[in-house]
Design goal:
Layout (H helix, E strand, L loop, with lengths): L1 E7 L5 H11 L5 E4 L3 H13 L4 E4 L5 H12 L5 E4 L1 H4 L9 E4 L6 H8 L9 E7 L4 H11 L5 E2 L30 H12 L6
Parallel strand pairs: 1-6, 1-7, 2-4, 2-5, 3-4, 5-6
Length: 201
Amino acid sequence: DIVQRAIEVDPSRRTQLLRHLVQTEKWRRVLVFVATKHAAEIVADKLRKADIEAEPFHGELSQGKRSQVLLDFKQHLVQVVVATDVAARGLDIVQLPVVVNYDLPRSPVDYTHRIGRTGRAGESGLAISFVSAATQAHLKLIEKRQRLDMPREQVAGFEPVQTVAPNAADPLSVGGIKGQRRSKKDKLREAAGRALPGQEP
């Protein structure tokens, strides 16, 4: 049984929120999904600086390093593993209580694969997705395809300031959801808007 939650947070505060949740909820083991290996390194490093045992897990790590991270994770020597989708394929962690979508997956199928890491063998699991103004549409598409309806939550002290999606793509987003692309007309409209004198960027 997997409880699925969506927490609204500005992109720049996701790592702080993740750290807060790990510490206050006393999560013993957490698998965090990010979009890129660069993000995996940065998020893991910031968690370590907050005295949380965290390791990145991505395709550019040697096989030996990845095997060691998994072993440490299974033996509770590492509390948080920050992984990319490609590296995490085939992972089988028994009794993994929490999965966090730091970056939303590109497709609803990837969402299913991610959250399926928890709640196995009759155990209960928790899957949390961070969502910002820029990624609300992405999450809505996932919900539609998966026939989900996740109420949006906010955590005290981490309420989002951004309430309208910016024109520019979120630099830490995954480049959109498969099956949902801006039309040529949308792009032309954006270009025309940027060309107007006196308009804020």
